[in-house]
Amino acid sequence: MIPRLLFILKQNETSYGGYGTSGGHLSSGLSNSVTFLVDMLTRHGVKAKMVIVPDNNSIDREVNSFKPTHVFIEAFWVVPEKFDVLKPLHRTVRWIVRNHSEIPFLSNEGIAIGWTIEYLKRGVEVMSNSLRAQEDLRAIAVAAGLPEQLVTFGPNFYPSPSPEHIGRPSRENARAIDIACFGAIRPLKNQLIQAIAAIALSDAVDMPVRFHINSSRVEGNASPVLKNIRELFAQTIRSELVEHDWLSHKDFLQLIGSMNIAMQVSFSETFNIVSADAMAGSVPLVVSPDIPWIGAYAHADPTSLHSIVGRMMMIWNESAQGSHVRIHQQRRDLSAYCRASEQVWTRRFAATFGSAHQGRMSLV
Description:
Layout: E1 4-10, E2 20-22, E3 25-27, H1 29-43, E4 47-53, H2 59-66, E5 70-74, H3 82-89, E6 94-99, H4 103-106, H5 112-121, E7 125-128, H6 131-143, E8 151-153, E9 177-180, H7 191-205, E10 209-214, H8 223-234, E11 240-244, H9 249-256, E12 261-264, H10 273-280, E13 285-287, H11 305-316, H12 320-349
Helix pairs in contact: 7-8, 7-11
């Protein structure tokens, strides 16, 4: 039997790992990453589909329609008790809740740990997109006397970028340095120190900076973060804060591809699709070591202004050849990660139905 995988997202979800809508277009890292995963599995002959529902009362209808062997609930939004209703109705379905956050992010979700334990009690698999998160949740399962085998690993996948995305904005005759720090405003995204680093770079190279953010999604009690960033630039003489609405993925790729540097020096990440989008646009990255797929050449200490500015200075002062090498290294790093990710998913789902593979392997 060929596996039939149904991935279910909740509309207007705004919790960690969730998403929102903008201008009628579904637009989020979560929905984009699931789309990439579904497309990859489909290429391998797996029947896979993504649907978006308004609430958990719509799950039964979608399952009856698609007849899946596996149902993936994307992020923590289905109350555990709902599975007491769904499992008897669909006895052959394997239910999986996918976690897209590390423990530091989950600590801000008051339901995450309790619901994880309740899912496991009901035989619902909890799949993380990070090996570290899988290990942490397995420790919780063991402590609660629950089967750790139900805590599994299902990493992100990102497609190879289209040829038209190859390139980099020229520095010649540039009037300002465009620095991207996109994504939802959240405390653990660490955007304020990155804004200060951008201004410090401006002073160091004697050139204005335009610091680009998304300001239409403020989550996790992060309003003070955005307020501080705005006040910082309001008092800065020659650097500018540029605020963008949430965009469709196509439009976002065009925007981020116009940047000189992309920053994601976060305190906690599992994959970070914004960095992958920057890679697709051939934009050099400065990130924290928490982003698993990119090498140390792009890493900065998220608590050190000196470290972050140093990485940005290195990028800005690189020769054309050095920049070319950096961009291709970023692509090789993500490609290696995604090849391993593809193996994890295809070993379990593109092989014979019922395979015991749980997809545990090391990612480079």
